[in-house]
C-alpha cells in the first residue's frame, strides 16, 4: 500500500478536516471570549452580585490612558447591551429612583492599547491588544463602593486572524467579562 492509495488519502483528508475544525473553533472564541474578573475589594458578606438590581454603567480613562470619549461610550453601550440581554429583569431604568440594593457599574480603564495589526499579522504575540479596567460596583443610594474587580482582556493571535481583529472585537469579550461579575459565565 502506497501513501497515495485511496485509504491513505481518506485518512489524510479526515485528519485535515479535524485540524481545520479545531482551528476554526479556536479562532471563533478568542477575541470575544470571557476572562475571569478578579476581585480586588471584597464585598460585604450580605452582598450577592447574582441578585442585585443593576443601575447605570459609566466609564472613564485613568490619567495617561489614551482613550477617546467615543471609545468610552462604545464600551459602555456594549456592557449595557450585554447586561440587558443577560439580565433583563434586573436592570433599573435610566432616571428611575434607586432600587433597594441597586449598584451602579463604574469602569476606570487602566490599559487601552490597540496594538498593531501589522505586527499581529506577522507573528503571534506581537502587536497585542490590551484592555484592562477597575470595575467598581457602587451602591446607588449611599455612593459607597460595594465591591471592586479588575477585568483584563488581551488578544495576541497572529496571522490573518490577528491582523484582521480590531480592538472593537476584543471589547466584546471585555464587556462579556464585566457581565460575568453578575453571575453569568
Describe the structure.
The chain is α+β, with helices and mostly antiparallel strands. Helix content is 36%, strand content 24%. It has five helices and five strands, in the order αββαβαββαα. The protein has a five-stranded mixed β-sheet. The chain is elongated and about 75 Å long. The N and C termini lie far apart (51 Å).
Q: What is the secondary structure topology, with strand pairs?
A:
Layout (H helix, E strand, L loop, with lengths): L5 H24 L8 E4 L12 E8 L7 H18 L16 E11 L3 H6 L6 E11 L5 E11 L3 H6 L2 H13 L6
Parallel strand pairs: 2-3
Antiparallel strand pairs: 1-5, 3-4, 4-5
Helix pairs in contact: 2-5
Strand runs, count: 5
Principal-axes shape call? elongated
* Helical amount: 25-40%
Look at the helices and sheets and give the structural class: alpha+beta
Gyration radius, rounded = 21 Å
Arithmetic mean of pLDDT: 84
Residue stretches low in confidence (pLDDT < 50, at least 5 long) are: 20-29
In short:
With 185 residues, this protein is of the alpha+beta class. It has helices at residues 6-29, 69-86, 117-122, 159-164, 167-179; strands at 38-41, 54-61, 103-113, 129-139, 145-155. The longest helix is centred in the N-terminal third of the chain and has 24 residues, at 6-29.
Amino acid at each position: 500500500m502506497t501513501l497515495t492509495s485511496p485509504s491513505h488519502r481518506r485518512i489524510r483528508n479526515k485528519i485535515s478536516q479535524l485540524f481545520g475544525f479545531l482551528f476554526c473553533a479556536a479562532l471563533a472564541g478568542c477575541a470575544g471570549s470571557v476572562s475571569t474578573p478578579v476581585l480586588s475589594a471584597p464585598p460585604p458578606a450580605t452582598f450577592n452580585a447574582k441578585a442585585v438590581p443593576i443601575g447605570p454603567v459609566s466609564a472613564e480613562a485613568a490619567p495617561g490612558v489614551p482613550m477617546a470619549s467615543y471609545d468610552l461610550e462604545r464600551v459602555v453601550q456594549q456592557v449595557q447591551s450585554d447586561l440587558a440581554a443577560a439580565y433583563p429583569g434586573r436592570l433599573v431604568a435610566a432616571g428611575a429612583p434607586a432600587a433597594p440594593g441597586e449598584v451602579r457599574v463604574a469602569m476606570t480603564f487602566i490599559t487601552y492599547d490597540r496594538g498593531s495589526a501589522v505586527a499581529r499579522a506577522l507573528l503571534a504575540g506581537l502587536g497585542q491588544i490590551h484592555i484592562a479596567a477597575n470595575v467598581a460596583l457602587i451602591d446607588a443610594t449611599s455612593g459607597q463602593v460595594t465591591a471592586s474587580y479588575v477585568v483584563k482582556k488581551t488578544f495576541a493571535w497572529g496571522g490573518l486572524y490577528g491582523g484582521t481583529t480590531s480592538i472593537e472585537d476584543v471589547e466584546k469579550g471585555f464587556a462579556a467579562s464585566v457581565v460575568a461579575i453578575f453571575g453569568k459565565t
